[in-house]
Amino acid sequence: MYSKILGSIEFNEERLNSEIDQINKFRFSSAYKNYSVGEWKTCLLWNKTGRSNDGISVEYSGSAQPTEFGEKLEYINSTINGIFNMKTCKSVRIFAARGNSLIIPHRDYLEFKDGFHRIHIPLQTDSHSFMSERDSVFAIRQGEIWFIDGNQVHSGGSFSNKLRLNLVFDFSTETSIVDIFKDQKIYNENLEIKLVQRPELSDEKLSSILNLSFIIDHNNIRDIIAILAKIHFFFNVSSELMYDWLIEICNRSNNQKLIKAALRFKEYFLIKGPTIPFPLDEY
Ligand code: YCP
Ligand code: CO
Q: Residue range 124-141: average pLDDT?
């Protein structure tokens, strides 16, 4: 796995909870709606412009500015400023996954020259919130500081009815990951992590998945995608297989329009990203 733990901090529960109450009232952006299954959204705390409506990531020189929402979170800001050198930080966001929601397996930075060092710190989570990288599924716990390698196929979400809130940072790749830390006492890659073991996906289950070819059509392709995106969290398979299953389901359906959409769908999330039009816009 390329994603790795970098350290862990203990939040002051009372102060954190009062800021989570504020976060619950903030406006969230649907900028990456195409990536969302269920309800997965972002809230811009710091970005290039300081405008909370600018929800799309951009590469730029200079440091991130707090938005109207970022400015309100005194405790979170002082915690962040204690851990990291914020000078090379390009954005701070909240990634919110409502119950039973996730971000579809994808690769990041496909539209960028360099991309970022992405770091996640869960603010609110439970034992049914997971992240994944290819064929590994892991739980990242409140206060853990994780490097998430967006170049690898990854996904994450909440599989209970709990709202999961992660604090997410994008740092310039000009700085090494170690140097992002202002407080070197916090930096520690040797902490124990929580990998999730899953049972094998039986041939019978796989053939049931592929038999979705009998019912797939433009009305339910998004529902079928939601089913496929979740399988790897519960069975020991690699997340990117969902795209090949979708292609096979569409091939077997013999629907030329769906076959074309499925091929472009894989290309969008794994190879080209937002540099090409989103293939399901007409569904
Ligand atoms: C980003 N990429 O890199 C987005 C986040 C998934 C797609 C959501 O900012
Ligand atoms: Co990502």
A: 97
